[in-house]
């Protein structure tokens, strides 16, 4: 983490609210669009909560949707607004009981949760982010007398091909996954991503898109999301 980022964090957290009364497990992401992979993460966090009753976490996780920043201007990568993402997730049937919030970035999200009386105790993230999140929680999220609070990682395994390599390699990997999905009718949750869903729209693979976003049993909702994303692609060609 560079000095500029540390300075921004110090400024953000210098007026930290008091410890939240409710302990929560948190999932942070863009969810653009939300997919069956995201819902698998939510289920994993719910399982963590049930398996760690001694932590006294709220029974359902908090999901923070990141949006509203400069990156949202790129509509091909971020075709859905924050409100649309939350609406689709809430309507999917895969996120029942979840509390949704939004923030411009993960660091603002954590501070905002405490301001709302929610104390982030456990956090779910991939290898590329989890350690930074835990460092922030351990440094800034303390008790009123400055004592540390124990925080927990809910580690997510990610397909390295989805985060490493150049754009052309990623495209080939996604196209291979979509071709396999067309043949078998099944898609491995481990390789599902927002990028894969957007690629399915780009190639006009509507049935495959519905499976990627976990809405094959809600075709009307899947089509609405598909059309929303395709509209943004057409506008920005």
What's the structural blueprint in terms of helices and strands?
Layout: H1 3-13, E1 22-29, H2 36-51, E2 62-66, H3 82-91, E3 99-103, H4 106-115, E4 118-126, H5 130-140, E5 152-156, H6 160-163, H7 167-184, H8 194-202, H9 206-212, H10 219-235
Parallel strand pairs: 1-2, 1-4, 2-3, 4-5
| Residues in β-strands, percent | 5-15%
What is the end-to-end distance? 35 Å
As an assembly, this protein is single chain
Q: Provide the gyration radius in Å.
A: 18 Å
How many beta-strand elements?
5
Give me the strand/helix succession: HEHEHEHEHEHHHHH
Poorly predicted regions are 159-163
Mass-distribution shape: elongated
Number of helices: 10
Largest sheet: 5 strands, parallel
Mean pLDDT: 88
Helix percent band? 40-55%
The strand line-up of the biggest sheet is 3-2-1-4-5
Which structural class matches the secondary elements? alpha/beta
Could you describe the 3D structure shown?
With 237 residues, this protein is α/β, with parallel strands linked by helices. The protein is built from ten helices and five strands; from the N terminus they run αβαβαβαβαβααααα. The chain has a five-stranded parallel sheet with strand order 3-2-1-4-5, with helices on both faces. α8 packs antiparallel against α9. The longest helix is centred in the C-terminal third of the chain and has 18 residues.
């Amino acid at each position: 983490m560079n000095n500029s980022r540390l300075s921004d964090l110090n400024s953000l957290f210098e007026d930290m609210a008091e410890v939240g009364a409710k302990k929560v497990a948190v999932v942070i992401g863009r969810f653009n669009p939300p997919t069956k992979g995201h819902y698998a993460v939510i289920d994993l966090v719910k399982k963590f909560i049930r398996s760690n009753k001694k932590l006294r976490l709220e029974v359902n996780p908090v999901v923070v949707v990141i949006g509203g920043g400069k990156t949202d201007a790129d509509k091909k990568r971020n075709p859905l607004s924050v409100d649309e993402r939350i609406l689709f997730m809430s309507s999917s049937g895969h996120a029942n009981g979840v509390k949704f919030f939004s923030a411009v970035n993960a660091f603002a999200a954590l501070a905002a949760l405490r301001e709302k009386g929610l104390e982030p105790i456990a956090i779910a993230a991939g290898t590329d982010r989890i350690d930074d999140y835990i460092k922030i929680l351990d440094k800034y999220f303390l008790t009123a007398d400055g004592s540390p609070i124990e925080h927990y990682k809910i580690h997510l395994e990610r397909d390295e091909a989805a985060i490493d390599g150049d754009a052309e390699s990623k495209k080939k990997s996604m196209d291979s996954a979509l071709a396999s999905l067309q043949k078998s009718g099944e898609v491995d949750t481990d390789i599902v991503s927002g990028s894969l869903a957007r690629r399915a729209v780009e190639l006009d693979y509507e049935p495959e898109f519905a499976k990627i976003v976990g809405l094959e049993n809600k075709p009307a909702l899947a089509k609405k999301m598909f059309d929303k994303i395709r509209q943004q692609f057409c506008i920005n060609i």
